């Protein structure tokens, strides 16, 4: 008897396309999934990543959600900006952004910093799009940070000043 699991890539017979979230089928006896809109994605069993063959973008899955693995600061910044826009349209405002520690070196030069006021011993927290930024705990302590890119803390209400328009300053 043939083991059916061996006929499909590591993520099974179908997945959600990381781009459009449509269900896409695996090509049997390959490591490939095919989206009608976005083309082929190859599953890498060694790294548990999904690679978009046309663009070379890498994705990892956490809690049945795909997260792009960024190699350039503009990618992570753009993704955060999109999430802030979604929050705004849902009637929320972000109060803080927590970025995965693995992106600290990549995004560090793009953070807004200000010198401490007189009498303050510590500099204020770095900011991105006007929001305080913190970096996640070590991925060994919390494995989700090995995959997810950031988390936004939010509260109901619109931002007092909509600071997120400064996308690529």
Secondary structure layout plus pairing:
Layout: E1 14-16, E2 23-26, E3 32-35, E4 39-44, E5 49-52, E6 58-62, E7 65-69, H1 73-89, E8 92-99, H2 104-107, E9 127-128, E10 131-135, E11 150-156
Parallel strand pairs: 8-10
Antiparallel strand pairs: 1-2, 2-3, 3-4, 4-5, 5-6, 6-7, 8-11, 9-10
Average pLDDT number: 88
The portion of residues forming beta strands comes to 25-35%
State the helix count.
2
Helicity, in percent?
Answer: 10-25%
Counting helices, strands and paired strands, the structural category is mainly beta
Strand order of the main beta sheet, please? 1-2-3-4-5-6-7
Give a short account of the largest sheet.
7 strands, antiparallel
N-to-C order of helices and strands: EEEEEEEHEHEEE
Low confidence ranges: none
Number of strands: 11
Shape: elongated
The radius of gyration computed from the alpha-carbon positions, rounded to a whole number of angstroms, is 19 Å
The end-to-end distance, rounded to whole angstroms, is: 60 Å
Descriptors for this entry?
169 residues; mainly beta; 7-stranded antiparallel beta sheet; 4-stranded mixed beta sheet; 2 helices; 11 strands
Characterization of the model:
With 169 residues, the protein is mainly beta. 12% of the residues lie in helices and 31% in strands. It has two helices and eleven strands, in the order E-E-E-E-E-E-E-H-E-H-E-E-E. It has helices at residues 73-89, 104-107; strands at 14-16, 23-26, 32-35, 39-44, 49-52, 58-62, 65-69, 92-99, 127-128, 131-135, 150-156. A seven-stranded antiparallel sheet has the order 1-2-3-4-5-6-7, with no helix packed on it. Strands 9-10-8-11 form a four-stranded mixed sheet, covered by helices on one side. The longest helix has 17 residues, at 73-89.
């Amino acid at each position: 008897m043939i083991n059916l699991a061996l006929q499909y890539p590591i993520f099974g017979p179908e997945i959600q396309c990381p781009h459009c979230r449509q269900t896409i089928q695996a090509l049997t006896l390959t490591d490939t999934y095919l989206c009608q809109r976005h083309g082929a994605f190859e599953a890498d069993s060694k790294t548990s990543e999904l690679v978009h063959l046309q663009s070379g973008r890498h994705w990892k899955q956490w809690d049945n959600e795909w997260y792009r693995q960024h190699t350039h600061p503009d990618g992570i910044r753009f993704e955060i900006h999109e999430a802030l826009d979604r929050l705004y349209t849902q009637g929320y405002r972000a109060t803080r952004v927590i970025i995965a520690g693995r992106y600290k070196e990549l995004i560090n030069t793009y953070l807004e910093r200000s010198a401490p006021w007189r009498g303050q011993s510590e500099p204020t927290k770095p900011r991105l799009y006007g929001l305080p930024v913190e970096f996640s705990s070590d991925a060994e302590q919390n494995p989700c940070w090995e995959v997810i890119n950031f988390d936004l803390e939010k509260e109901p209400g619109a931002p007092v000043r909509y600071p997120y328009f400064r996308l690529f300053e």
